[in-house]
Design a protein that fits this description.
The complex is a heterodimer of chains A (200) and B (310).
Chain A lengths: L2 H5 L13 H4 L2 H6 L84 E2 L5 E2 L4 H5 L4 H8 L6 E3 L5 E3 L2 H4 L31
Antiparallel strand pairs in A: 1-2, 3-4
Chain B lengths: L21 H19 L5 H5 L8 H19 L4 E3 L9 E6 L8 H10 L11 E6 L23 E6 L8 H5 L5 E3 L5 E3 L9 H5 L6 E2 L14 E3 L11 E2 L5 H4 L6 H5 L5 E5 L6 H8 L1 E3 L11 E5 L2
Parallel strand pairs in B: 1-8, 2-12
Antiparallel strand pairs in B: 2-10, 3-4, 5-6, 7-9, 11-12
Classes of the chains: A mainly alpha (200), B alpha+beta (310).
Chain lengths: 200, 310
């Protein structure tokens, strides 16, 4: 299969994020947190805790072209449903699942509703709300994200802001933030040469 | 000073000192100094030389100066450059927080700042300096390395601490300026009037964070790289011989936008907002995270906070 397709395969075949049994205990509380909070960060007009859906703008999940909807292939006919945890071959086999022990696709991806994800309590959510899924384990990060402290915000400090989804920065199958090449270091003072005039 | 009669910019005619008029005499002496200086000061125009401190300008003078600067910059960079003098917002005190547990030292902020704020590319001037430190050592500037250049960051065993102007509430740099060319604005931003700065660099010696930069040479900024939306007290092109520094992107933040370094940071380590707004993310950080002030013992009272977001 084409590599790029496979790379993005987490959305379709799936893997998981999340969801250890221990979290189940937490899920009722998390469910209550459903609307991405709106953010106290918008100025004195909004009391902390107010929900203003206009303030929350999340970009679409970073699907690769052509991979979504998953039901293109997972329509129940072309690909037969097999809920046995196993090593994937043929499709999605290059997805490295490096996200906690003993996980597999259907921990997060819904077997019956392929274009959606599911929480530990079985509630289905869209890919655009995947932060609720992540938040089942990473509740403290979800809390910080909602108030704008975890993750990046752009836009207006006193107005409309744009958020990123967890998966815009963290590949859900291998969520550790990837190292980057640093931009060049500053020129040491003794190597700075002024073009016209200035210090020799 | 405010009752000094306006000297018409085009005229350098100095009246004879009149008996009993000390002011007249001073003005005459001043004119002589101007004349002397003009002969030795290359391309400084009369208007520039006679321009007063930004804080003493009335509306008409400011408008004239801005029009002059816009014309000058537009001609120099061959595209329309605007110079604004946006006033501070009432009820706003800017604060900044940087998450040391997330910064990976990629230096994206450094270059976003240079681009946004029209720093000289050659000789190189950068307002943000990212220090690589040893995790075992902790925050120790004596062991910090600003010149790290591995293929990938973060490097094992290290953490990264970007340093820029801390916008102190008690700024030593302002205290030492002999000509009041730098001051703290009501929204907490310490600014420089580049037309009033005499280049003595006392402020640089006074700043414990090394946050100020001096234009040792004629700043070189390629016209295609200029950010044409400039602010008088912020990112307008600077002349040689003056000091400059981070202004929390005054040209953006006074219009409600986030600073350029906040928006570029790929890890979301940088947080910005109004310290007087109890619902702002900066207040959340201060109230809920472990926060430390760099060189707190100097009582500079920075409005730049480092925190651990984990």
């Amino acid at each position: 299969m084409p590599r790029d397709k496979a790379r993005s395969g987490w959305q379709s075949g799936g893997l998981r994020l999340a969801v250890a049994a221990a979290l189940m205990m937490l899920s009722p509380a998390l469910r209550a947190a459903d609307p991405p909070a709106a953010t106290p960060a918008t100025g004195a007009k909004n009391a902390p805790g107010d929900v203003d859906p206009n303030q929350i703008q999340v970009p679409p999940p970073p699907f690769s072209e052509g991979i979504f909807p998953c039901t293109q292939c997972h329509d129940g006919k072309t690909v037969k449903l097999n809920t046995t945890p196993r090593k994937l071959v043929d499709m999605h086999d290059d997805i490295v699942l490096n996200h906690g022990p003993n996980r597999w696709c259907l921990d997060c991806h819904s077997a019956e509703h392929r274009d959606r994800l599911h929480l530990v309590d079985g509630k289905l959510i869209d890919f655009t709300k995947s932060y609720l899924l992540c938040g089942q384990c990473h509740g403290n990060k979800l809390r910080d994200w909602k108030v704008g402290v975890h993750g990046k915000r752009t836009g207006y400090w006193n107005g409309q802001k744009q958020y990123l989804l967890c998966v815009n920065c963290h590949n859900p199958h291998s969520p550790h933030f990837k190292p980057l090449k640093p931009l060049p270091p500053p020129v040491p003072p003794d190597q700075i040469v002024a073009v016209e005039g200035g210090r020799p | 000073m405010s009752d000094t009669p306006k000297t018409p910019g085009s005229s350098l005619a100095c009246g004879e000192p009149q008996p009993g008029s000390r002011r007249r005499f001073i003005r005459a002496a001043g004119c002589a100094a101007v004349a002397a200086a003009l002969t030795g000061c290359g391309n400084l125009t009369t208007e520039e030389f006679l321009q007063r401190n930004f804080r003493e300008l009335d509306k008409r003078e400011l408008a004239e100066i801005i029009a002059r600067l816009e014309k000058e910059y537009t001609a120099k960079f061959r595209k329309k450059v605007t110079v604004a003098a946006t006033p501070p917002m009432p009820g706003v005190l800017f604060g900044y927080a940087l998450d040391l547990s997330r910064c990976i030292g990629c230096r994206r902020c450094v270059y976003a700042c240079v681009k946004e704020n029209n720093q000289s590319r050659d000789p190189q001037i950068q307002w943000i300096r990212v220090l690589q430190m040893d995790k075992a050592e902790g925050v120790n500037v004596l062991r910090a390395d600003p010149y790290y250049d591995p293929p990938l960051v973060p490097q094992e065993g290290h953490f990264y601490m970007p340093v820029q102007c801390h916008q102190c509430k008690n700024p030593p740099c302002v205290k030492v300026c002999p000509v009041k060319a730098t001051w703290q604005e009501p929204d907490g931003i310490t600014v420089v009037d580049y037309n009033w700065c005499i280049g003595c660099r006392y402020c640089m010696a006074a700043c414990p964070y090394g946050a100020r930069r001096f234009n040792w040479g004629e700043p070189h900024l390629p016209p295609e790289e200029i950010n044409p939306a400039t602010e008088y007290l912020g990112n307008r092109p600077r002349p040689k011989g003056v000091v400059e520094k981070c202004t929390f992107c005054i040209q953006r933040t006074r219009k409600g936008r986030y600073p350029a370094c906040v928006e570029i940071c790929p890890t979301g380590s940088r947080k910005f907002g109004n310290l007087l707004d109890p619902g702002s993310e900066i207040r959340y950080v201060i109230e809920n995270k472990r926060v430390f002030l760099f060189k707190e013992e100097l009582n500079t009272q920075p409005k730049f906070f480092y925190f651990y977001g984990v």
